[in-house]
Amino acid sequence: MVQNIIFPSNQIFKYHLTGKFKALSNEWKHDYAPLTDYELIIVTEGDLYLSYQNNNFHVKKNEYLILPPSATCRDGYKMAYSSFYWMHFAVDLGSMPSTLKPSYMPNTDITDCFLIPQTGSLPRPEKVIVQMKQLQDIVKNSYPQISLDTMTTSILAELYGQLKVIPQRGDSSKFRPEQQVYNDILDFIETNMDKNLKVQDIASSFGYNSKYLSHLFLGLYGVPLKQFILDRKIETANFMLTDDDKPIKEIASDLGFSDVHNFTRAYKRRTGITPTEYRNAFSKRLLFHK
Fold first, then answer.
1. How crowded is the C-beta side of 75, counted as CA atoms within 13 Å?
2. Rounded distance, CA 278 to CA 286, Å?
3. 149 and 11, same structural domain?
4. How far is Cα 63 from Cα 45, in angstroms, rounded to an integer?
5. Can you tell me the distance from the alpha carbon of 165 to that of 69, in angstroms, rounded to the nearest whole number?
6. 221 with 228: CB under 8 angstroms?
């Protein structure tokens, strides 16, 4: 059973370190190392096999892991290729414990704090990753500590908000029957991100009338399906623009746009800036290979 990590809701977290790790082969595993602060890990490629506090964690692409400080050490328990963003930070818990098992929650006073499951799948990983890349950029640009601390807090708040608000695929206990359709739509969009998706395409694939499907999605998610498709493409574009140096023409193709000009127009219409301007705004990175 996944335990919860406790964080205070009435303070700004303290930034320590951040970066992106990218293994050079599939014969890598995490070093044996102590952990005196918190660490947030978000895997973007491959698999991370990490042992900590008598637990063996297997973290896959688009999944996260939070490790609280302790007297034990982290250690890789299996070799694999892995690429992930990481962030070290500290919080003042006072007399509160750092973790809480779900079975203890009803009897525990958790005033002025919030709980995040220690590991799980991110509904919208690109949004968190873009913020972590922005954090790297302001570190490289020597921003003051308050800026680093505030961005660190914002990243944890985004993670918490996603898990709290966006329905989790695979957890049937949280869904009304029609929300299975919502899950299927999300999967369909992610699988076909490289295509010029239309609402009619999705409706035809599921055997629904396009107007009915749009109305159903609006009721479940709060935005029209057409807007959601574009939003997901823009979020994915933001991730691709900041995560590596792939040419914008290739990004446009990967996201199903007919050419780079249509992509640039759609991107600027939605964000107010061009893809190149966005990439240049957060161009500095902290990349590690060991």
1. 7
2. 18
3. yes
4. 10
5. 27
6. yes
Return d(Cα 43, Cα 38) in angstroms, integer.
Answer: 16
- How many CA atoms are closer than 13 Å to the CA of 152, on its beta-carbon side? 28
Where residue 76 falls (left for φ over 0; alpha for ψ -120 to 50; beta otherwise) is beta
Question: CB neighbours of 30 closer than 8 A, spacing ≥ 6?
Answer: 48, 49, 50, 74, 75, 76
Which domain does 141 fall in, by range? Answer: 4-165
| pLDDT tens for each residue of 210-238 | 888 888 888 877 888 999 999 999 999 99
Give the N- to C-terminal CA distance of the chain in Å, as an integer: 31
CATH number at residue 105: 2.60.120.10
What's the pTM? 0.75
Residues 131 and 227 in one domain: no
Parallel, antiparallel, or unpaired: how do β-strands 55-60 and 4-8 relate?
unpaired
No. of helices (H) and no. of strands (E), the chain: 9, 12
Which one of 135, 165, 195 terminates a domain?
165
Lookup result for tokens 């709290």:
164
Neighbours of 269 (CB within 10 A): 10
pLDDT one-digit tens code per residue, 48-63: 999 999 999 999 999 9
Q: Say if residue 40 is in the same domain as residue 103.
A: yes
**289 found inside a domain:** no
Q: What's the rounded Cα separation, in Å, for the pair 20 and 65?
A: 15
